[in-house]
UniProtKB/TrEMBL annotation:
GO cellular component: CURI complex; UTP-C complex
Residue ranges of coiled coil: 177-204
GO biological process: ribosomal small subunit assembly; rRNA processing
Name of the protein this chain belongs to: RRP7A protein
Domain Ribosomal RNA-processing protein 7 C-terminal: 92-210
UniProt KW keywords: Coiled coil
InterPro entries: RRP7, RRP7_C, Rrp7A_RRM
Tree of life domain: Eukaryota
Assigned protein family: Belongs to the RRP7 family.
Species for this entry: Fregata magnificens
Alphabetical list of Gene3D superfamilies matching this protein: 6.10.250.1770
Keyword Membrane among UniProt keywords: no
Amino acid sequence: DSLSRLFARCGCVQSVDICEKPGPGEKKEKLTSKFFNCKTVTGFQVAYIVFRKPSGVQAAKALSREGPLLISTESHPVKTGISKWIASYAASVVDWEELKAEVDAYMEDYDKKIAEEEAKAAKEEGMPDEEGWVKVTRKGRKPGLPRTEAANLRVLEREKQKRARKELLNFYAWQHRETKREHIAQLRKKFEEDKQRIALMRAQRKFRPY
C-alpha cells in the first residue's frame, strides 16, 4: 500500500509484487487464504512496481532528482513500537466465523472436484482410447473416504459401535471383578466358620486332628 501510494504520483500503478530476491522468472503467488500458507519473510525484499502506462516508468526514474521518498508522514503514518505490536496482536486474533466460512467453502470445492473426477473416471472406464487401449483401474482395499454427509454418517456409526463394544467389555470386566470379590468373601466367611467350629471342638475336647 505504501509503495502504491508513493509511486502513484508517477502514474497509475497496476500492481506491486514483493519477492524475497530479484529474478525475472520469479512471480509471487497470490495469496488465496489469510489463515493458511501465510509465510512471513524477514530481512530485505525486492519490489516490482508495474505501471499501467510506460510513461510511469520514465516518471519513476526522474524521482531520484526530487529527493528521497518518505513512507511515514503525518498524513500517512507508519505504526512503530507498541502501536505496531498492538496492531500485530489484533491481526493475529482469528475470527472463527470467517475461518469456518473459508474452510467450508474450501471443502465444498474439494468435494465438487472429487465428484467430478469420479464421474469422469466412471464415464471413461472401459472405453478404449485413440490407440484402442482400455484403461483398467482397481481401487484399493481402503480407498480414501470422500468428505460427504454419507461418509460422515458411516464414520459416526462405526465410532458408536466401537463405544458400545468397549462399554460391553467394561461391563464384563466389572462383572468378573464382582464375581471374584464375592468368591473371596465366601472363602473368608467359610474360613471364619471353620475357625469357630475348631475352637468349639477344642473347648469340648473333641478335637482330633490325627
